[in-house]
Amino acid sequence: MALDFCLGVTLLLSMWTTAKCDIPKEAIQMECHDRFFVIAVDLAFTGSNPHFEAVDESGVYAITKQSAAQCGYSIGVLPMLGHVELRASYFSCHTENKDDEVFTFNFNLVVAIEGKIATYALNKTCSPSLPWSPREVTCEVNYMEVSVKSEVTCPSETKKEDWNAALKSAYTSATSDWQVMLHGDERVLPMNLSEAHKRGYAFHLTDSRLVLRAPYGQPESFSAEVKGVPVEAVHATLFSRQSWVVLMVDLVAACSMHEGSYDNSGYMMWDTPEVLHPLMTSESETRVKIGVDGELVEKPVAEERGYIVEKYNGTLQISIPYNAEGAIRKSLVSGDLFEFYVFALYLEQMLFGEDQMDTRLRAHRTLATPLLPRPLYSENRTVPEQRMFTVYLGDVPEDVGLVAVHLNGQVFTVPFMNVSSHTITKVIHPNNTHGYTLKVSMADPIVRQQFSKEDGAMQHTLEINYTLTVLPEYEPFYHLASVMAFTDVSPPVFDAVCTESGISFKLDRRPFDYLWEITIGSDLLTSELADQHGYIMSTDSNSLLLEVPLFSHGFKSTEATLKGFFGTFEITMRDPETSEVQSSSVKTCPFSTTELIMCSTDGRLTVVADLSLAMPNGGNPTRTNLRDKYCGPKETDGTRALFSFPLNSCGSTVKLGKEYVTYENEIFFSKKLRALKNPADPINNIDRVTVQCTYPLSGLFRLFSVYKFESDLAGVGRILHSLQSTEGLRSPTMEPTSVTQSPVYTTRRTRRPVSMRPGYQPPAKYIKVSSFLKNLPKKKGTLQSKINPRMY
Ligand SMILES: *[C@@H]1O[C@H](CO)[C@@H](O)[C@H](O)[C@H]1NC(C)=O
Ligand SMILES: *[C@@H]1O[C@H](CO)[C@@H](O)[C@H](O)[C@H]1NC(C)=O
Ligand SMILES: *[C@@H]1O[C@H](CO)[C@@H](O)[C@H](O)[C@H]1NC(C)=O
Ligand SMILES: *[C@@H]1O[C@H](CO)[C@@H](O)[C@H](O)[C@H]1NC(C)=O
Ligand SMILES: *[C@@H]1O[C@H](CO)[C@@H](O)[C@H](O)[C@H]1NC(C)=O
Ligand SMILES: *[C@@H]1O[C@H](CO)[C@@H](O)[C@H](O)[C@H]1NC(C)=O
Ligand SMILES: *[C@@H]1O[C@H](CO)[C@@H](O)[C@H](O)[C@H]1NC(C)=O
């Protein structure tokens, strides 16, 4: 406990000691200029309200606004530069002066650090290298100062009346103390120096010079327009009667009070008359030097910086580019973003008088531009192919930062969290501006998407509201931008692959796929439809999978050969409003089977049958035929034959039921040959191959109108082998749905069921009339005999 306490005290003491003795080197800068000290202290160190105290042998003097103007101090807080600056004239009240050559300024810097007042004792000694001119006039921001060589006191051009009045006063004044007469007052009465001091004037007698200092706006000052330029002047005559000699010194300071103007071509202008006061004239042409921040520059440097000095009708006109080197720029929010520039002009006018009575006039003037609009710009750098909005926000000044971005109303603070679909990057330029590149994927959920019917394209919109702040005040303002892009939208496209048992379709979903209806034929693809037709459908937000088994509803088989056949399935994309087909995904896959039967909608039966048991040994499938012996196979191999014929031809029989019609035919091995080859073959050992096509009557059009066979649905085909079990021989009492859903097996001797179901032909509605007609009469009897008369 005791230890803790000690530690605390030690810490406190050590802190106090550091505070008292050491000021961080980088926090303070002290410089010697031609005619004044410059003390600059970092505002980060001092806080916003530092104080200075001047120190001399007689005491410590707080530098207040009033005392500063009287005593030769100027204090400026420059938040834009981050420091507070104190300029002290070499003739300032409490500066130690050795022979007008070595000046020492002792002062205290008083700051409040964490609520505690800390005082730093500091000093700076300077020896200006520039010799003093006989007369030196300084037009500071808060005072005028004039110093003259005290040895030379012969004024040449004093106005007669003033001079006489002064003389008279000097004679009548009984004292040897210095008196002063301030011209400009109506009553020119002499006063002693302490009286003048009370009135705000300061007089110093240095080693070799007499100094007068006066704040601006004194009652005794002159204000007048000279050559159209406002000028303020102070004119004092100092005198002293030393027995029979009267010493008189005329002190005059005159300064241009022009406030500066901004011409809209980007120049700050400042005017001063060449001759500011009748007592400040020049025998030869005045010489002008210009600079910034209390430092004059050589003419070529000034020219390079774009400073222009023109003599015009008795005035000097100074023009400085608003953003010239040395200008301080500041952003400001007033609804929109504005900026202004502040320029600390420093000017020297040399006036050359008789007998080398030269006058050096130095003026400090702070020029500020009005508020200039500082528009930021945003540029649409979107490349639509990248499916990414790219927006550049440019010309952002140094003292402005981006803090947040509203994207379609949703706020994101900067820097963005790591989200790949929108990013923002800062781009820094050498001209003290920076910019931000915003990238937002068009697929980002924050991007508004709207399908535009007229353009037939997807419209992506992004409204951007940038929130920027001006530093260091953090004053916010907003910049708006809006970008829009169209992307072509194409109907969805399925990827399809052939599988052993069918065709598998896959769709990667896009957000705008709702613009199309996905249909199979004319039916909307729904899970109910999939259930009904035996499709296997699985769907999530990203993809849709559809597996279409062979011969399911919508499956089309074509080009049957002995090698196999092609199965085709088509998914169509339709406009939901017009039902117009806009695109389709079609996949055709090869399939191979041993046996196959197809009953087409246009009335053709195509069959590939295994005849290995229907033929005697050594039999040849080429020798097979249908009931009509002239109807032979189209194609054969060692054991199989392919027949393709119109349902009503080749000796087919027709069985008409209440709801179904069945066409039947048979494949024979040529009897003649059979008998010849092996007469002993019992006929019962020969496999009889029957082929059937069954169509629901409801779907048939004009069954008997002779010219056409047209069915809504393909028929259900069967191949019946007599040598096998009779399972497959059941008469077709199928429900249309069960027919299309459950496989119909053709049975073979191996008893291996082949997954095979009746297939479709494309709806080629009109068959060749001639062949149909040719066959019709032959079959008429059969047909009629088997038709239920009720059907007529
Ligand atoms: C001036 O300051 C220095 C330290 O910066 C110090 O050593 C010196 O004593 C000071 N002089 C006076 C006269 O205070
Ligand atoms: C200066 O003049 C004022 C008023 O005229 C007078 O009161 C004062 O005593 C004088 N001071 C000195 C030091 O003579
Ligand atoms: C020059 O200045 C005088 C007075 O200051 C004025 O009358 C005159 O018009 C000026 N001349 C020009 C050309 O501006
Ligand atoms: C974002 O990710 C990068 C690398 O993936 C990382 O370097 C960075 O720090 C992350 N930024 C934030 C804000 O998480
Ligand atoms: C700054 O430089 C950038 C890049 O060179 C340019 O786009 C921008 O216009 C410049 N801005 C100003 C204010 O000069
Ligand atoms: C931009 O965002 C700011 C801050 O949310 C809001 O005050 C301002 O109204 C917005 N501007 C527009 C045009 O939406
Ligand atoms: C932006 O750029 C894209 C791509 O160049 C263009 O399609 C769009 O019309 C542009 N304008 C706006 C306001 O988004």
Care to describe what's here?
- This is ZP domain-containing protein.
- Keywords: Signal.
- It holds the Pfam family Ig_ZP2.
- The chain has 792 residues and is mostly beta strands.
- It has five domains: 122 residues, Immunoglobulins (Immunoglobulin-like), CATH 2.60.40.10; 236 residues, no CATH class; 92 residues; 97 residues, no CATH class; 191 residues, Immunoglobulin-like, CATH 2.60.40.
- 12% of the residues lie in helices and 47% in strands.
- Strands 10, 11, 14, 15, 21, 22, 25, 26, 27 and 28 form a ten-stranded mixed β-sheet that branches. Strands 3, 4, 7, 8 and 9 form a five-stranded antiparallel β-sheet that branches.
- Strand 29 and strand 30 form a beta hairpin.
- It is rod-shaped, with a radius of gyration of 55 Å.
- The N terminus and C terminus are likely disordered.
- The structure holds 2-acetamido-2-deoxy-beta-D-glucopyranose (7 copies).
- One 2-acetamido-2-deoxy-beta-D-glucopyranose binds next to strand 36 and strand 37.
How many domains? The number is 5
The backbone outline, from C-alpha atoms, is rod-shaped
Query: What percentage of residues falls in helices of 4 or more residues?
Result: 10-25%
Number of contiguous helices: 10
Number of strands: 57
- Stretches with pLDDT under 50, minimum 5 residues: 1-20, 153-160, 725-792
Distance between the termini: 121 Å
Largest sheet: 10 strands, mixed
Bound ligands, each once? 2-acetamido-2-deoxy-beta-D-glucopyranose
Radius of gyration: 55 Å
Query: Which structural class best describes the helix and strand composition?
Result: mainly beta
Strand content: over 45%
User: How would you state the average pLDDT, rounded?
Assistant: 79
